[in-house]
Amino acid sequence: MCFPVVNRKSCGNIEFRCRSITNNLSPNPSKCEGTMDKQRNEKCSSGNKTIFAWAGGIVVVIGMVWLMVISFISYKTQVMTNQLLDKISTSLAKNPAAQQGVNGNIQDEVKGALKSIADQKLAEERKALYKGWDKANKNTDGRYIYGEPGARFSLINYEDLECPFCKRFKETPKYIVDTATAGAVNWEWRHYPMSFHEPVASKGAAVAECIAEQKGPSAFWAVTDYWFNHTETNGKGFKDADSIPALFEVDQAKFDTCMGSTEVIKRIKQDMEAGSAAGVDGTPTTIVRDNVTGKEVSVVGAQPFSKFVEVIQSMVVDSQRDTSGEASPAQQDK
């Protein structure tokens, strides 16, 4: 076993002792067996204990001093902080304007942050309004269509923005146009506000026309879709209808002028007269027209997608028979 010898003067010049080593380690190895004689060994042990005791005491004292210093610094810091807070409170109490300034700055920052969030949300909402209406157009008659102007077939849709069945039906013609191959079908909107949904139905039609006058065909379809999504229908409309111009970022003065113009009223009446001439007496009514042959078929009500596919396919077959000179089933019955 090895151990250090601290007091070199009393114990010679040996720094480590090992009991297993007995030669040349001591003046009298036979008595000490690898250690110093008993008297010297006791002196070494006593000296070591004294030094370790002193060292331990010094460490304890130093530790206590450091704790006291740290505690004092912490105490002084807390005192200074409290004094500073007291001074600020006293100053604000003596000067209400300063207090209002602090509160005003905080309120301004909060308002600014909330406005930024609201603006971002509104920008996202405006962007979403136009989503899916990239095929919006106008035909040669100046009416708004969705799809290719030169499509083989047209779905001429007589609509009332306050009609609950029109609201239910609104996705069907769009889906037909979007799924038709090679732009074969387009969808044409015509206003047909019913008398028992007035005056809200005509107002909705005019809003769509006046927004589109500034923002173009895509806005027309976006407005009609927005109206359907928010109205309670049956002439009840919705409370935020007057916010539509701001939502679509149009010039309010120009919009107001448009809403009061006879031109918009005339346009709506022309659609209604065309509908009456085609036998329309309810909404939604869709006239499926083959733009090649000129043949038209009326589909009344919110009919499913399959009904329109059936009508269009039948018109294709009839046109092929007419071209080949074959008689259609109806002609054969005659």
From TrEMBL:
Carries keyword Transmembrane helix?
yes
First and last residue of the signal peptide: none
Sorted UniProt keywords? Membrane, Transmembrane, Transmembrane helix
Among InterPro entries, the record links this protein to: Thioredoxin-like_fold (IPR012336), Thioredoxin-like_sf (IPR036249)
Where does the record place the Thioredoxin-like fold domain?
142-297
> What residues form the membrane-spanning segments?
51-75
Q: What is a single Pfam family found in this protein's UniProt entry?
A: Thioredoxin_4
What family does the Swiss-Prot or TrEMBL record give for this protein? Answer: Belongs to the thioredoxin family. DsbA subfamily.
Alphabetized PANTHER family for the sequence: GLUTATHIONE S-TRANSFERASE KAPPA, THIOREDOXIN-LIKE REDUCTASE RV2466C
Q: What is the name of this protein?
A: Thioredoxin
Natural source organism: Citrobacter braakii
Organism lineage reads as: Bacteria, Pseudomonadati, Pseudomonadota, Gammaproteobacteria, Enterobacterales
